[in-house]
Design brief:
With 271 residues, the protein is an alpha+beta fold. It has helices at residues 14-28, 74-96, 122-133, 179-192, 219-224, 227-230, and strands at 7-9, 37-42, 45-49, 57-58, 101-109, 138-147, 151-156, 168-172, 201-209, 245-254, 262-270.
């Protein structure tokens, strides 16, 4: 495909938008269960979305955001303690599951704390967990913010059969580490996808890459480009309102035919 991005989206009429929102809620697991969905986005590509895992374990250690501070910084100390707890929960599962796994982190907050602002970015909670488990072992990871206790579930990645068309699909070439990659994705979203209404959001993204890619490293530049959907401060490009996402699902499929490109399929809905 070279440097060409292939993009398909749903019709933007109000009727189609309503159907898209209903389908997105199904994919997000907001209704009718949490099954894997296969959605045709191009003539040769099938997006894959996995089921949520079962076997929830209550977290006795508060989930922590990713930290890039020095090793002795309090944020790193708290993160290390949390990840040691993840090890204790995940170790037995990883030892018995031969294939890839799915994980879900529920981040619990006290009543009265807002779930849609305050720096509680779900992607930044999920990244350390996926990195600890090993991105190559993780086929899907889910995150939710709730008022209540935190928990973690890990189990075999299981496929399903229900179908829904993504609201946005693009094949992206080039290096995701370059600003131009984010800008190109941002511009395609701005041209093809309407901004979602204010309030909490559910977002599901399915990524298809070639083998050997650390797909978790794609998450930040990918989510940073979603400002046309989530909203952003025009004075701060690539800083969308991540905190609005209260339900996030990130899914990965390996396809040798993709080579170095990345295929992105996305669903979103107001919650």
């Amino acid at each position: 495909m070279g440097g060409v991005a292939v993009v398909t989206v749903l019709n933007s009429s109000s009727a189609a938008a309503t159907v898209a929102a209903d389908r997105a809620r199904n994919v997000l697991g907001m209704s009718a269960g949490c099954h894997q969905v296969r959605a045709r986005t191009t003539m040769s590509h099938m997006a894959v979305v996995y089921r949520r895992p079962v076997g929830v374990m209550r977290q006795s250690v508060k989930p922590q955001l990713a930290s890039w501070d020095r090793a002795t910084h309090p944020s790193q100390v708290k993160l290390a303690r949390f990840l040691a707890h993840v090890d204790a929960i995940a170790g037995p599962v990883l030892a018995t599951v031969s294939g890839r796994v799915a994980a879900e982190l529920i981040v619990g907050f006290s009543d009265g704390i807002s779930l849609i602002d305050g720096g509680h970015d779900l992607g930044s909670y999920l990244f350390p967990v996926a990195s600890r488990l090993g991105p190559q072992r993780v086929a899907a990871i889910f995150g939710r913010k709730i008022h209540g206790p935190s928990s973690l579930a890990i189990g075999p990645a299981r496929p399903g059969t229900a179908g829904a068309t993504g609201q946005f699909s693009a094949r992206m070439a080039g290096s995701y580490q370059r600003t131009q990659w984010k800008q190109r994705l941002h511009d395609r979203l701005a041209a093809q996808a309407a901004a979602i209404d204010p309030g909490p959001v559910g977002l599901t993204i399915a990524l298809t890459t070639g083998p050997g890619r650390n797909w978790a490293s794609l998450w930040k530049p990918l989510l940073d480009a979603f400002a046309p959907v989530l909203g952003e401060d025009p004075a701060r490009p690539f800083h969308p309102h991540h905190d609005r996402i209260v339900s996030l699902g990130l899914h990965h499929t390996i396809n040798t035919g993709v080579a170095h490109d990345v295929i992105i399929d996305a669903w979103w809905a107001s919650l």
